[in-house]
Specification:
Helices cover about 30% and strands about 20% of the residues. About 5% of the residues have low confidence. Among the domains are: about 230 residues, Rossmann fold, CATH 3.40.50.2020; about 220 residues, Rossmann fold (3-Layer(aba) Sandwich), CATH 3.40.50; about 80 residues, 60s Ribosomal Protein L30, Chain: A (2-Layer Sandwich), CATH 3.30.1330.30. It is of the alpha/beta class.
C-alpha cells in the first residue's frame, strides 16, 4: 500500500509553498492547505498553479463539496450586504448583481448568485457569440486565454445601480478584478463592489491597489474569501518548470471505450447558464428544466450499468464555461444514489506529472470542438479519486450546441481521446439559449418593477423521481405580457390513458359535462347551420367483437408499415428542422402519431417535447394553446403533426389560422404540417403518400388515449381557456392505445435499416403539394350532386371517421377486395351503408355524408 507524503510534490521538490493566514470559517476543511494544492504550468508569466480542491475544475470532486464552498462564500457576501451579523441563508438582504469570471468561476459565481438571491447573474465569456451584443470587455494578465467579454442580453438587465459582487476562485493580485471594475464603471457606475473568492493570496501591495482604485472611482470596494494566505515562489521557478520533461498526455489503453450520445431537453427561452445573463425570474424555470434533464440522463445511465455494479459511478465533465448546470446535474445524480464526481475541461495548459502528492496525475489534450477555434483544450485526471471502484466510471460529458461539431468525435477530439484511454463516454448535448430570444423575452420584463414579476414554479421534486415530463419541465400557469394567466396542461393518468411523459394535453377537461348527442339529430343541426360540429360530441361508437378482432389483425399486418412511416417522417423532420424540435399534434387523430414520433426519436437518443392542441374547421387553432407554446418554446421549433391528409381542409385551416394569429400580434409559427400519410398531396413533410390504413383510424377514443374529439363551445370555454375534451375513464377496459404504440414501436428495429434511404429519396424528390386530392373530391362532389365538399371525406382514415361518428350516405371504393379498407366494409355493413366500386377513384376509398338538413 502506497502512503501519500505529507508535503505536496511541488513543495518537496521545487520549494513551492502555500501559507495559511486567516479563514472566515472555523473548520479545518476551509484552510488554505485544504482548499488548494500547488501545481505547475508552463506559462512565461506565471509558472505556478493553485489547484482548487473544492472547485471541480482540475480534480473530480464531490458535487456537494463544490456547492457547499459556493454557498459558504455566498453566505459571507450576504452578511456583508446585510450590514454584518451571522450569515443566514433566508435573511433578506439588499438586492445585488453578480459577475463570475470565465472560465474557472462561472459555476462558482452562479452558486453565489443563487445563494444570495441575486437580481441578475452574468459571467464573462471568451466565446464571442455573434448574435449577442458586447457590453464591455477586459483583459486578464496572467491567464492563458486573456480576453473577457460581457454579453448580457439585453444590456438593460445589467444597467442598474445595485451593488455588484465579482466572484473568482482565487485572487492572486486582484488586477483582473480591478480591470473589470474599471471597465464596468465606465458603462454603469456603482457605489459598491464586492470581490468574493475562495482563496485570497494578495500581498499588502496588492491590497493597497484596491484602496487606490476605490478612491479613484469614488466607490466602495470590499473583499470576502473563505481563506487568505500567501504563495512562496522559489527563485527561477519559470525556468525550472520549463526545463522539466515534456508531460505524457492522452493515455491509451488496450480497450477502446464506447460512446453513447443523448440530446438533453432544454427550453429555448430558459438560459442554461449566465453567459447572457441569468435573472431571478429564471430560477424556477431553470430548476424545472433541470428536473427533466436529470430524469432523461438517469434513464440512459440505467442502461449502462455493470452487472457487478448496478450503481456504476459517474464523473460529470462540464465543458469550459458551461459549469453550473452540469454541477447541478451531478449533485442530483449523487442525490439519487449514483456515486458521482464533477469536473470540467479547460483552455489552460497545466503540467502533468504522475507522482504521489502532485494533483494533476494525468491529462488529455484535444482539439477545440467549436468551429473557428484553433487553440487546444485540456482535461485533467478524469478518473475516480482514491480507492478504485468495482467498475470504471462513466464519463458523462455535457456540452452545449456550439461545441457539438464533427471536431468533437474526430481524431484528436475529446470523445476520441477519452475512449482511446478505455473510458466509456456518455455525451450529453444541451441546446443553448438563443441570445436574441432571451433579449426579446426580457425586453418587457426589464421595464416591470421587480416586485411585480411572477416566477413560475416546478411541480415535481428536484430529481425528477416522480415523473418525466414531455415538455422538458412542468411549470405553473404562465403569464401573457398583459398579465393574463395561461392555464396548465393536462397529463395522464389524471387525463387520458397515455403515460405522463408521452404528451401534455393543452386542453380543458370537460369530462363531467354531458356533451354527447344522438348522431342523426346532431348531424341535422350541424347541416342546418344552427350548431357547429365542435360544440358537441357524437356518442362514442363501440364496435362489436368481430370488428375488434379485425382491428387486431389490421394492426398486426400494418404495424411494420406504420413504423416505417413514423421513422421516415420523424427523420425527415429533424433533418430539415434540426434536433431541437417540439412536436405539437393536432388532437386527437394526430396525437398517437406524435407519441410514436417521440418514441422513435427517443430510440435515437433525441428527447423532444410533445403537446396536443385542438384545431377546429372554420374556427381555427386554439389561440390560447399557441400563446402557451410561444411562452415556453421558440415558435420556430414547433412542428405540427397529424395522422393523415384527406382533401387538405385541415392543412389549409392550419395555415390560415397561424397567419391570423400572427396578424393579431401573436408569435409566428411554421405551418408546415408533418403527417404519416399524405394521399391528397397536401403537405411536403410526410412518411408516405400511399392511401393505406393507419390503425389508429379504426377506432375512436379507445385508440387515442381515451380522449374525445375536441370541443369548442362558447358556453363551456371562456376567453383564455384551452379548447375542451373529455376523458372516457369508463372505457378503460376497451382501451388499446398503449397496445397500438407498443406494437408499432416493436417494429422500429426491423425498419431501421430502410429509413436512411427513404429519407434521402424524399429529400431529393419534389415534394411540393399538388392538391390533387382536392381536385378529385370536387369531381366526386359534382358527379354525385353533393352540395359541399365538406360532405366528401376521401381516404381510408376520413372514410373511417364518417362511419364512426357521422351519418354516412355511401362509401366509394376503388378495389372492392382491397385489404386496406376491409374494416370499412365491415363498418358499412353494420350500419347498412351501401358500398360502390369506382375503379378510377383517386383514393382507396371515400366516405360520403348524408345531407339531412331541411
Amino acid at each position: 500500500m502506497t502512503v501519500e507524503p505529507a508535503l505536496p510534490w511541488a513543495t518537496r521538490h521545487l520549494g513551492l509553498t502555500l501559507r495559511h493566514t486567516d479563514s472566515a470559517l472555523l473548520e479545518p476543511d476551509w484552510r488554505i492547505d485544504a482548499l488548494v494544492e500547488p501545481g505547475l504550468r508552463r506559462n512565461p508569466r506565471r509558472a505556478h498553479l493553485l489547484v482548487s480542491t473544492v472547485l471541480g475544475k482540475h480534480l473530480p470532486t464531490d458535487p456537494h463539496r463544490v456547492l457547499d464552498a459556493g454557498n459558504r462564500l455566498g453566505d459571507l457576501v450576504r452578511e456583508l450586504l446585510a450590514g454584518g451579523g451571522a450569515p443566514q441563508p433566508n435573511r433578506p438582504v439588499a438586492a445585488a448583481v453578480v459577475l463570475g469570471f470565465a472560465e474557472t468561476a462561472t459555476g462558482l459565481g452562479h452558486t453565489v448568485a443563487a445563494r444570495i438571491g441575486a437580481r441578475c447573474y452574468l459571467h464573462s465569456t471568451r466565446r464571442d457569440v455573434p448574435t449577442a451584443e458586447t457590453l464591455a470587455g477586459f483583459e486578464e494578465g496572467h491567464s492563458h486565454a486573456t480576453s473577457h467579454l460581457l454579453q448580457p442580453m439585453p444590456a438593460a438587465i445589467f444597467h442598474n445601480d445595485l451593488p455588484m459582487v465579482l466572484v473568482d476562485d482565487e485572487i492572486s493580485t486582484g488586477a483582473t478584478a480591478l480591470d473589470a471594475i474599471r471597465a464596468l464603471h465606465t458603462q454603469t457606475p456603482r457605489s459598491h463592489y464586492i470581490l468574493a473568492s475562495l482563496v485570497d493570496m494578495r500581498t499588502e501591495a496588492d491590497r493597497r491597489a484596491f484602496d487606490t482604485a476605490a478612491a479613484e472611482l469614488g466607490a466602495r470596494i470590499d473583499t470576502v474569501c473563505l481563506a487568505s494566505g500567501s504563495t512562496g515562489l522559489p527563485a527561477g521557478l519559470i525556468d525550472t518548470v520549463t526545463a522539466l520533461p515534456e508531460p505524457e498526455l492522452n493515455p491509451i489503453a488496450d480497450r477502446t471505450g464506447a460512446c453513447l450520445r443523448v440530446e438533453l431537453p432544454w427550453p429555448q427561452q430558459v438560459p442554461e447558464g449566465g453567459r447572457h445573463g441569468f435573472l431571478d425570474t429564471d430560477v424556477a424555470p431553470f430548476d424545472a428544466a433541470l428536473t427533466h434533464a436529470v430524469a432523461e440522463l438517469t434513464g440512459v445511465l440505467t442502461t449502462l450499468t455493470d452487472a457487478t455494479d448496478p450503481r456504476r459511478p459517474v464523473i460529470v465533465i462540464a465543458h469550459e464555461e458551461l459549469m453550473y448546470l452540469p454541477l447541478r446535474i451531478a449533485a442530483a445524480l449523487a442525490d439519487s444514489g449514483i456515486p458521482t464526481r464533477y469536473q470540467t475541461t479547460t483552455r489552460s495548459p497545466a503540467y502533468v506529472l504522475d507522482e504521489a502528492g502532485y494533483p494533476l496525475r494525468r491529462g488529455f489534450r484535444f482539439t477545440a470542438p467549436e468551429l473557428g477555434e484553433e487553440s487546444p483544450r485540456f482535461l485533467y485526471n478524469a478518473r475516480w479519486p482514491g480507492t478504485r471502484p468495482a467498475s470504471d466510471p462513466i464519463l458523462l460529458v455535457i456540452i452545449d450546441r456550439p461545441a457539438d461539431t464533427e471536431k468533437l468525435t474526430a481524431a484528436g477530439g475529446l470523445v476520441d481521446v477519452l475512449t482511446a484511454s478505455g473510458a466509456d463516454v456518455l455525451l450529453a448535448v444541451l441546446p443553448d439559449a438563443d441570445p436574441r430570444t432571451l433579449a426579446d423575452v426580457r425586453s418587457d420584463s426589464t421595464k416591470t418593477p421587480p416586485h411585480a414579476r411572477t416566477a413560475v414554479s416546478p411541480s415535481v421534486d428536484s430529481l425528477g423521481r416522480e415523473a418525466r415530463h414531455p415538455i422538458g419541465f412542468e411549470v405553473g400557469p404562465a403569464a401573457l405580457p398583459g398579465g393574463e394567466r395561461l392555464p396548465e396542461p393536462l397529463y395522464g393518468p389524471e387525463f387520458g390513458s397515455y403515460a405522463r411523459d408521452e404528451v401534455a394535453w393543452l386542453l380543458t377537461d370537460l369530462s363531467g359535462v354531458a356533451l354527447e348527442a344522438d348522431v342523426a339529430e346532431r348531424e341535422r343541426r350541424i347541416q342546418a347551420g344552427v350548431a357547429h360540429y365542435a360544440e358537441s360530441l357524437p356518442v362514442e361508437y363501440q364496435p362489436d367483437a368481430a370488428y375488434q378482432e379485425l382491428f387486431e389483425r389490421v394492426l398486426a399486418e400494418s404495424a411494420e408499415r406504420l413504423a416505417l412511416a413514423v421513422a421516415t417522417v420523424s427523420e425527415l423532420v429533424i433533418s430539415e428542422r434540426g434536433r431541437d424540435v417540439v412536436l405539437v399534434s393536432l388532437a386527437r387523430a394526430g396525437t398517437p402519431v406524435g407519441v410514436l414520433m417521440r418514441r422513435w426519436l427517443a430510440s435515437r437518443g433525441i428527447a423532444v417535447p410533445h403537446y396536443a392542441v385542438s384545431i377546429v374547421r372554420d374556427r381555427g387553432i386554439d389561440a390560447t394553446a399557441l400563446d402557451y407554446l410561444a411562452r415556453h418554446h421558440d415558435p420556430a421549433q414547433i412542428v405540427f403533426v397529424d395522422g393523415w391528409t384527406g382533401k387538405g381542409a385541415i392543412t389549409r385551416e392550419l395555415t390560415a389560422a397561424l397567419d391570423a394569429h400572427h396578424a393579431a400580434g401573436g408569435a409566428r409559427f411554421d405551418p408546415d404540417l408533418a403527417v404519416l400519410a399524405d394521399p391528397g398531396s397536401c403537405v411536403r413533410t410526410y412518411g408516405t403518400r400511399d392511401d393505406f390504413l393507419i390503425a389508429s383510424a379504426c377506432l375512436n377514443s379507445t385508440v387515442s388515449g381515451l380522449v374525445s374529439r375536441t370541443v369548442l363551445n362558447a358556453g363551456l370555454i371562456g376567453p383564455g381557456q384551452f379548447h375542451g375534451a373529455k376523458f372516457y375513464r369508463e372505457l378503460a377496459g376497451q382501451d388499446v392505445s398503449g397496445h397500438l404504440l407498443d406494437t408499432v414501436g416493436a417494429c422500429f428495429d426491423r425498419v431501421r435499416p430502410l429509413v436512411d434511404a427513404r429519407v434521402r429519396d424524399l429529400r431529393a424528390a419534389d415534394r411540393t403539394p399538388t392538391w390533387a386530392g382536392w381536385e378529385s373530391v370536387e369531381r366526386v362532389r359534382a358527379a354525385y350532386g353533393i352540395s359541399s365538399v365538406n360532405f366528401v371525406k376521401p381516404g381510408v382514415g376520413e372514410t373511417t371517421r364518417v362511419l364512426l361518428r357521422r351519418v354516412p350516405w355511401r362509401v366509394l371504393v376503388r378495389d372492392p377486395r382491397a385489404a386496406e379498407h376491409a374494416h370499412i366494409r365491415l363498418l358499412a355493413a353494420a350500419r347498412g351503408v351501401p358500398v360502390e366500386t369506382v375503379p378510377d377513384l383517386a383514393y382507396a376509398c371515400m366516405g360520403l355524408i348524408k345531407e339531412v338538413k331541411g
